[in-house]
Write a structure and sequence with these properties.
Strand order of the largest sheet: 1-3-6-7-9-13
Number of strands: 13
Number of helices: 4
Shape: flat
Number of domains: 2
Distance between the termini: 39 Å
Radius of gyration: 23 Å
Strand content: 25-35%
CATH superfamily of the largest domain: Type IV secretion system, VirB10/TraB/TrbI
CATH topology of the largest domain: Lipocalin
CATH architecture of the largest domain: Beta Barrel
Length: 193
């Protein structure tokens, strides 16, 4: 029992002392995709970011950098990811500033609601019980998948189901549109001092 407790305390200590990160919120100026990656990406700062060494990115500044370490989606719903290494930034007056130190920021996935697979209940009850028990419940994807099966696209329906709804399903690619909000985890400069 003491051994299990010691292991638990050690694991909790490791989790607490792990490297902290600054969450950077920006706006993609061009499309960012892991299926068709570009070497250089530009992000407009939505909030201030301290990079250390006296470099503070202000709201409205534009960070330019490399898109590296691209990892494709994996089994067990591991989504694609990549690293952003800023090399320069342009302030609001249009002056370019070089970032000498290599800083690696990891893409931070934003949790998205799965409206396609959400249920919609239809029906009413007079006895106060759950309306889903009296009539029927369907998902918007049910109608879409029924149309695909009628049109002979059963394999596509199975592939979507297999990738989304099974434990071994594949994760998703990153597709950020121009002007869409994007998040990165930057190393916390206060932890390095």
């Amino acid at each position: 029992m003491k051994k299990k407790f010691s292991i638990l305390v050690a694991m909790m200590t490791i989790m607490i002392t792990t490297t902290h990160a600054q969450v950077f919120k920006g706006q993609a100026l061009d499309e960012i995709s892991t299926t068709n990656p570009t070497e250089i990406i530009k992000i407009k700062a939505i909030k201030e970011l301290d990079l250390g060494d006296g470099i503070v990115i202000q709201k409205g500044d534009i960070l330019t950098g490399k898109m590296t370490d691209i990892i494709s989606p994996q089994k067990y719903h591991k989504n694609a990811t990549f690293t952003f290494i800023p090399t320069t930034y342009t302030d609001k007056s249009g002056t370019d500033h070089k970032i000498e130190k290599e800083i690696k920021a990891t893409y931070r996935q934003k949790m998205k609601a799965d409206f396609k697979h959400s249920e919609i209940g239809i029906g009413m009850t007079t006895d106060g019980s759950d309306p889903r028990n009296s009539m029927f419940v369907f998902s918007p994807s049910y109608i879409e998948n029924t149309k695909k099966i009628i049109n002979g696209q059963g394999k596509e329906v199975w592939d979507e189901y297999k990738n989304r709804n099974t434990p071994w399903g594949k994760g998703e690619e990153i597709k950020i549109k121009a002007n869409e909000v994007i998040y990165f985890n930057f190393p916390d400069v206060n932890q390095n001092t």
